[in-house]
Design brief:
Layout: H1 3-27, H2 31-49, E1 55-61, E2 64-70, E3 73-77, H3 90-109, E4 118-122, E5 126-133, E6 136-139, E7 143-144, H4 147-159, E8 164-165, H5 168-175, H6 180-193, H7 200-216, H8 218-221, H9 228-237, H10 247-273, H11 283-286, H12 291-302, H13 305-308, H14 330-343, E9 346-347, H15 350-353, H16 355-367, H17 372-377, H18 385-394, E10 416-418, H19 425-440, H20 445-455, E11 456-460, H21 463-477, E12 492-494, E13 502-503, E14 512-517, E15 520-525, H22 531-546, H23 551-561, H24 569-587, H25 594-606, E16 610-615, H26 627-639, H27 647-651, H28 659-670, E17 672-683, H29 685-688, E18 708-715, E19 729-736, E20 744-751, H30 764-769, E21 771-780, E22 790-793, H31 795-803, H32 821-824, E23 825-831, E24 837-841, E25 854-857, E26 862-865, E27 871-872, E28 875-876, E29 880-883, H33 897-903, H34 905-912, H35 915-919, H36 922-927, E30 929-931, E31 937-939, E32 960-962, E33 967-969
Parallel strand pairs: 3-4, 8-9, 10-11, 10-16, 11-12, 16-17, 18-20
Antiparallel strand pairs: 1-2, 2-3, 4-5, 5-6, 5-7, 13-14, 14-15, 17-19, 18-19, 20-21, 21-22, 23-24, 23-29, 24-25, 26-29, 27-28, 30-31, 32-33
Helix pairs in contact: 1-2, 1-4, 5-16, 6-10, 6-14, 10-21, 16-21, 18-19, 19-20, 19-21, 22-23, 22-25, 23-24, 33-34
Length: about 1000
């Protein structure tokens, strides 16, 4: 079956079929007659299209008798005019339930996966589509019989008769990490990267590492993950030699493979929507090409020319993953040809007919490309749709919520930005709602497309995420593309929302903004101060650099095309420097991307303020950011008064400030209109912790800038919001231009059901049904200090508790940080007569697996360990001990190695067994190594050094309740040293 041409014919048949259905519904005397007429018309259309349909009429199943079953498509006919535009209507709800039952029965009878079946209740006036998706029933709102809905009905019916459905489950099966083909592609790409040090591929790899480190953390960009052994095991499973794998190169190869899949899925789908109008070679033909012919076809795809034919300017703009064309070899050719051959078996029409699966298409494919633990180490926690829907609802803007039937639609003039858009979850959901609102308001398709392109925008610094987000957005608007009035630009940009290109400093760097890249600084004249001017400049750079025009010719054209450059003599020097830099790169074979990188990086400077800013910014601690990036953003932390720690306290790790806190203030300052609302998913600790959260709770931009009013907080800290991860999650909404008023509405979510938990595919309705929401209020603990940590309770309880508050005699501490808990934590098994103790290291539950051994140690360095679970009301009883390698009172320096050998030989011998493990830890590399100017790395402390050591980690505590004084004194006396150590997981 030629899916694309059949789809085009169905588009033409839609209006005629709609007319037929209306006539049949009006003329039929009963349900049976209506059913017979429609089935006969479907049979006639199938013959006209040359399609063989597997048709079963009055098909008896264990769950009842289905009116009509066409292969994997179930139709439940209802008496004409009996359904209503309300899923709660009695007869309508009954019809929907019948469809559910028939899907369940058909799946059981014919051994189908329920997810791959589709059903519809149909009465000649309404279609109601029903499907089962990842454990949840998805019910669409009733669709009136129109040309568009009839086209959808026919397309679903015919597409489910043949071809491989383009759904996440099939893609995971064919292209997930367990598939031999995925392993072959990744291995070929990884090997092709080897030995490249000074070409375009090497520079793109370095630029990718810069961006990736700023979104996932410095360790992640270097492959230094918590689950490093799992990463190595995964690499071995992909056919690489695990112990010798270059992890950044491995991750870059994986990203390149995923990018290749995404681009070709986009190609496949857009060809279907264009009805063959792209004029592109079918995938089946491409998969049979060889050598240079295949490479040439893929180069046309990677250049973006294929998508520009459809009027899409920037789908592949700033793309880092076409490098494989320059590293082309027989292994890459063979692997990619197999990928294309398998993709060619897919029926792209199914994407439009299953909008729920289409939203998850790329997200789930990447989900199963990397093991969960590794994704989590990279900070890739995908926002579930139900959480995004909840936050969009909390904004209170009807345009970004699905409209109620018959509701009055406001003018669609509100704009929304996601400054950390990832793969586009918030943008796609907002686009879906905005599109439905525009349709209900009666806007034409061309107007709706312009509203979506002008009113939504996204920014992200992860090249792969931007690629996925652009394609996801494109899939959301693909049905509107035939109605475009000109070229379109997908409003998603590869840029840093926080750190935009900075102004040059010093006498010779005036009047310019500079973007730091892997090929050096790229300057742009400061007079280029609008989006249109930047687009024109970068277009001229690409055009003139590619054919090596002389510099003065380029400058003359720039003055002609960009009016602000006329008479700006200082701009000439900057443009000359930029143009000649790119010319030089072009001569070295390292051009082709930098002008587009420039355009994207500058875009945040030119975006007009938005009515709404929404998203899930990255949760990365200040100390986990790359050192260079920390230095660049430090002035922002200080400018917004977020960084409360200075000097030694900051060094010791008290500065657990999260980059999401900084993004909140930057986004509110730069991108939000006065009176606009911002809604973010953020760690719950910003409301409850002193120190790190204190600057965040100023709720004012700078010293004299606009106030920020927190309108509402959802506390989801007891729920497992993100797949397989225990995170303390909250969601909040604030408004710019008003001061926060206390108490703040604070909703505490609590799970009420046992057994099956919330999963990634839960709907918002299911989550609401499985949880209780307790309506609390929040206010600062110290009424005199509005930045103090929040107390949350019901209103009356809040008032009562605050009356008895006073200054506490106790001070919370972060606690000591051990590089590897499994090495430093012990069970004490026995004490020998000669004073030595017998211990076994505690490896159960440790994030990093180490060898479990029983040894004898000197007792001098072993202390009782107080964990959070050891502390209960009025008592604290340590169960484990810890080996402490610093002398009491010495915060920075571990016991020198020579002294350790002389005075604590057994402890030295024990630690020496784990030397390699300890030197690999992020803690050791960050705080106890230093890179010299010549590039050599030197160690600045013993390999067993620990962190956050201070007098406060030693406490002679004893739990005592003094009845008369009505006060609590907390402490524990230990058996060996009489002192106790608090680990860093106690706050």
């Amino acid at each position: 079956m030629d899916f694309i041409h059949t789809y085009e014919k169905l588009r033409q048949l839609g209006p005629d079929f709609a007319t037929f259905v209306r006539h049949a519904a009006a003329s039929a005397h009963n349900e049976a007659e209506f059913e017979r007429q429609v089935n006969n018309e479907i049979e006639r259309l199938a013959k006209q299209l040359g399609v063989d349909l597997l048709f079963r009429e009055q098909y008896t199943l264990a769950t009842g008798r289905a009116d009509a079953v066409y292969n994997r498509f179930v139709i439940e006919y209802e008496p004409p005019g009996s359904l209503r535009n309300n899923l709660n209507h009695g007869h309508t709800a009954h019809a929907v339930q019948q469809v559910k039952d028939y899907i369940t029965g058909l799946a059981k009878a014919e051994k189908h996966d329920r997810d791959r079946l589709l059903g519809v209740a149909f009465d000649g006036r309404y279609f109601i589509f029903v499907r089962y998706h990842e454990g949840h029933w998805i019910l669409e709102e009733p669709l009136e019989v129109t040309s568009a809905s009839c086209e959808r009905f026919l397309r679903s019916l015919f597409s489910l008769s043949s071809g491989r459905a383009l759904i996440p489950e099939n893609l995971v099966e064919d292209f997930g990490n367990q598939n031999v083909l995925s392993q072959q592609v990744t291995r070929a790409l990884y090997n092709a990267l080897a030995g490249r040090t000074d070409d375009l591929t090497a520079r793109l790899f370095e630029q990718w590492k810069l961006f990736f480190g700023e979104t996932a953390g410095a360790d992640a960009a270097e492959g230094q993950l918590k689950h490093k052994k799992a990463l190595r095991a995964f690499a071995r499973g992909m056919g690489l030699r695990g112990a010798q794998v270059d992890m950044p190169r491995f991750l870059f190869a994986l990203h390149t493979y995923f990018s290749f899949l995404v681009k070709n899925i986009a190609r496949l789908v857009l060809q279907a929507y264009a009805g063959g109008g792209l004029g592109a070679t079918p995938l089946t033909t491409i998969a049979n090409l060889q050598g240079e012919a295949l490479r040439r076809e893929l180069r046309h795809l990677e250049s973006g020319g294929l998508f520009r034919t459809l009027g899409i300017k920037n789908l592949l703009e700033g793309d880092f993953f076409s490098w494989y064309l320059d590293a082309w070899d027989a292994d890459i050719e063979d692997a990619l040809r197999q990928v294309l051959a398998r993709l060619a078996d897919y029926n792209p029409v199914t994407v439009r007919d299953d909008p729920h699966s289409a939203r998850d298409l790329l997200k789930k494919l990447y989900h199963y490309l990397l093991p969960r633990d590794i994704r989590h180490d990279l900070g890739e926690f995908y926002t579930p749709d139900w959480l995004a829907e909840r936050l969009l609802t909390q904004l209170g803007e009807p345009l970004f919520q699905m409209p109620r039937p018959g509701a009055r639609i406001p003018i669609p003039d509100k704009r929304l930005l996601d400054p950390a858009c990832g793969s586009g979850t918030f943008l796609v959901l907002a686009a879906r709602a905005l599109k439905a609102n525009c349709a209900q308001a009666g806007l034409a398709e061309s107007q709706t497309l312009e509203v979506l392109l002008n009113n939504l925008a996204g920014i992200d610094l992860n090249p792969l995420a931007v690629m996925a987000a652009r394609v996801n957005f494109l899939l959301a608007v693909a049905d509107l593309l035939p109605y475009r009035r000109g070229e379109i630009e997908i409003p998603i940009y590869l840029a840093d929302s926080i750190l935009t290109p900075g102004r040059g400093e010093g006498l010779f760097a005036q009047n310019r903004r500079i973007l730091e890249t892997a090929v050096g600084p790229l300057p742009v004249p400061e007079v280029i101060d609008s989006r249109a001017e930047m687009e024109r400049l970068t277009a001229l750079l690409e055009e003139y650099v590619s054919v090596d025009f002389e510099t003065d010719v380029f400058l003359a054209r720039c003055r002609q095309e960009i009016p602000d450059l006329e008479g700006a003599e200082q701009a000439d020097a900057v443009l000359t420097e930029l143009y000649e830099k790119l010319r030089d790169l072009h001569r070295q074979g390292m051009d082709g991307i930098w002008a587009r990188v420039l355009k994207n990086a500058f875009m945040p400077l030119f975006l007009e303020p938005f009515d709404y800013v929404v998203g899930n910014p990255p949760w990365i601690n200040w100390e986990s950011l790359p050192q260079g990036y920390r230095q660049q953003v430090a002035p922002l932390w200080q400018g917004y008064a977020l960084f409360q720690h200075k000097g030694f306290d900051a060094i010791l790790g008290k500065a657990k400030d999260d980059i999401s806190a900084l993004m909140t203030y930057v986004a509110a300052d730069r991108y939000l209109k006065e009176g606009g609302k911002l809604g973010f998913v953020i760690t719950q600790s910003v409301w409850k912790t002193a120190g790190a959260g204190q600057g965040f709770r100023r709720f004012r931009i700078g010293e004299k800038g606009p106030h920020l009013r927190v309108l509402h907080v959802d506390d989801l800290s007891t729920l497992q919001v993100f797949e397989g991860a225990s995170t303390r999650t909250s969601v909040f909404v604030l408004q710019k231009g008003a001061a926060t008023r206390y108490p703040v509405p604070y909703t505490y979510w609590k799970k009420t059901t046992r057994g099956r938990g919330l999963d990634y595919d839960s709907t918002l309705e299911e989550v609401l049904a499985q949880t209780r929401r307790l309506h609390f209020e929040a206010a600062p603990v110290d009424a005199r200090d509005p930045t103090s940590a929040w107390l949350t309770a019901r209103r009356k309880a809040l008032e009562a508790v605050r009356k008895v508050f006073g200054k506490s005699e106790y001070k919370a501490r972060k606690g000591i940080t051990a590089p590897r808990n499994g090495i430093y934590w012990f069970e004490v098994l026995a004490t020998r007569p000669d004073r030595f103790i017998i211990v076994r290291n505690v490896t159960e539950g440790a994030k990093y697996k180490v060898e479990s051994i029983t040894v004898e140690l000197e007792p001098d360095l072993v202390y009782p360990l107080l964990r959070g679970r050891d502390v209960q009301r009025w008592q604290a009883t340590p169960t484990y001990h810890i080996l402490l390698t610093h002398h009491e009172g010495d915060r920075l320096n571990a016991i020198p190695e020579k002294e350790m050998q002389q005075h604590y030989p057994k402890s030295w011998a024990y630690l020496k067994r784990f030397e390699d493990d300890l030197k690999e830890t992020a803690l050791f590399r960050r705080y106890f190594t230093r890179k010299k100017k010549n590039g050599m790395v030197v160690e600045t402390g013993p390999f067993y050094s620990m962190f956050n050591i201070g007098d406060y980690t030693f406490a002679e505590w004893k739990v005592v309740w003094r009845e008369q004084a009505k006060e609590l004194t907390c402490a524990v006396i230990g058996p060996h040293s009489g002192k106790i150590v608090v680990p860093d997981l106690v706050t």
